[in-house]
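Handout for the seminar on molecular recognition.
Each group receives one record of this type.
Step one: identify the two inputs.
Step two: read the structure output and locate the region that could contact 3-phosphoglyceric acid.
Step three: write two sentences on what you found, then compare them with the reference statements printed after the record.
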Amino acid sequence: MNALDVMKISPIVPVIALDDENDALRLAEALLEGGISIMEITLRTPAGLKAIEAIAKAMPEMHVGAGTVCNVHDMRQAIEHGSGFLFSPGISQELIESAKAYKIAFIPGVATASEVMLAQNSGLMHAKLFPATVAGGVSALKAFGGPFGEMRFCPTGGVSLSNLNDFLALENVICVGGSWIVPKEALVQQDFKSITALTKEALSTIR
Ligand code: 3PG
């Protein structure tokens, strides 16, 4: 699976922070029931790697990858635990080279023209715009479309039901990422039905 394949799985990529790896399979089921078969599980909690491993082993129908991959140690661990792809909030030469060596789909975060140039000149034509609304949102993506006509983006950070269609309408946007589909309170309350409902609501909002 390359980066484009990953970004085409679903128009919405849930960005997930899990405090308890025991929630992983039920969360994956709730998202699948709602119609989303991709999960970006961030490495910002210690449960992240175990959750990735549990889903990768037990649920082949769910595409699971890691987010918040900030250095090569994160990258190695994420791959060893079964991540099928990797998202990063930023971009660095070291991450680009390691991802190539591991032959894994790597979607770096970019926020400036120079970072887009680093991605593009390294052969990475797919990137996250992060943090999307802070980095200029729709206007920035339209502006990037001029000099970087081949680049395709997954805006993440500040995306919600109220603006996802503005992003998805852009020619250079394939999908959006967001955390609102998996609220922390729903996990604390073990309310997986509400996560399925939020997933369905998000997909049905897309025009
Ligand atoms: C993140 O890394 O937390 C993502 O960008 C999610 O951002 P959001 O909480 O604004 O959806």
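Reference statements: The domain at 3-201 is CATH 3.20.20.70 (TIM Barrel). The two ends are 27 Å apart (CA to CA).
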